[in-house]
Amino acid sequence: MKKLILLLFVITAVTAQAQDAEEQPQGWSNGGIFQLLFNQSAFNAEWQGGGTSSLAGNLGLNYDINYLMDRTSWDTKIIAEYGITRQDGDEFTRKTNDRLELNTVYGYKIAEDSAWSYSFFLNALTQFTKGYNFGEDEDGNVTRTERTNFLSPGYFQAGPGMLYKKGDNLSVNIAPATARLIVVDGQFTDGPDYVDGAYFGVDAGETTRFELGASINALYNFQIAENVRMDNVLLLYSNYLDKPGNIDINYSTNINMKINEWLSANLIFQAIYDDNAVGAFQIREVFGLGLNYKLGDAREVQ
Q: What is the pLDDT of residues 267-288, one digit of tens each?
């Protein structure tokens, strides 16, 4: 899985570089896409084919704020997503999506005509609301146990590095001295039975974990076909202080298929590997048909 994600990144990045030959405007620019995806199914009591009535919705915001003036650039991306689903007969509504992320990179070109810049980046990642583990009690009733919350965990990364930027379709920031702070709620690490590192790597009785390592943050966009565009974010991190060979991976892609000015189909895919959370890949996929609204100077799906 790790090799597949990295291969996809390389292929897409090379393609994006080849496509992007347009000149970027000077000064401030901003824009993005707001999307509402909706899914519903219903079955009456006489329906013989099987099925459960359900209702689901997903809100998404992908917004960019950019500054370019001579050799100076400052690019910021905000990603906010939230989705829920409710099936007939379920006691609890469940989340299908919950993400709040900020990526910002400041760059100063090493030469006027160079694609490389000296850089400093900041990345922040968390969620909006509580997350639960679901199970059953001895009577067969569904139970839920709080597992995560806003800023539990919260990931903050920052550090100097080198930025490679080709137009506004491709940027790769390499930071060999990245500080990372993991923030959690103390309720999850308290108690005599808690094992150090069991909750996102944080020790018993603590609310933070500090790491120092190397990171690669990449943003790239790719026009797959007419009216179909793919936006990608790839975050790689290696902690020098603990198991540097275990590279954390956070890859997400958003494929937007434009139907008309207001309607679109949207596919969101995300794969996360972080052995402080779980020693396996976490996979999330959301597909839906919904409404989209252009904000500011967002790039159109052609």
A: 889 999 998 888 789 998 878 7
